[in-house]
Amino acid sequence: MRRSSNRKSSSASAAAGSGSTKAASKEFEKIDHLFNVYADKSSAIIDPEGIEQLCSSLEVDYTDVRILMLAWKMKAQKQGFFTLEEWRTGLKALRADSMSKLKKALPELVKEVSRPTDFLDFYSYAFRYCLTEDKQKCIDIESACQLLSLVLGTQFGPQVDKFTEYLKSQSEYKVMNMDQWMGFYRFCNEIPFPSLENYDSDLAWPLILDNFVEWFRENQK
Q1: Based on CB atoms within 10 Å of each CB, which residue in 19, 118, 158, 168 is the most buried?
Q2: pLDDT digits (tens, 9 = 90+) for 49-81
Q3: What is the enclosing helix (H) or strand (E) of 19?
């Protein structure tokens, strides 16, 4: 009797496993179908034109920060392009196998990114995503200003406004590196603004922030 019971249990487990596999396969089938709507037929990749079409379907602007969040969720490696594998990674994580589900997932994605640990990862990803050339380690100041406004403008508007004003007015720095990029985020979190009362240039701040603080204080007089 025990053997018979074991066989039934094994059969039930196998059936459940088979059902789960079929469900997963069906989910990927839907995700892949959605990918093919926007992918270029010759390269089998969603290119900038495809992303514009995707934005239109999502009813969001091409420059909307939520598109960057979507790229982060996909772990997209190349700016303006989504591979099938990246698309699968993102949409499976968002549990979105249709356009209507993807639309509904965006507000939850925004909430996820707003969590401090996730935002830190997203913020560093945003910089890496803008490195469009092999071995590139910096982004130009104009692009850095646009990106800062996009990813930090809502959270730290006054700091971003003044910092980008400084960056556009100075001539010493032509590009920004990752250390400077991450340093500014730490600055926003740790230094009271506009008083800057606890800013100490003797501490390990990037030089660009020392210069910004000096410029800001001079302009406050």
Answers
A1: 118
A2: 999 999 999 999 999 999 999 999 999 999 999
A3: helix 2-38
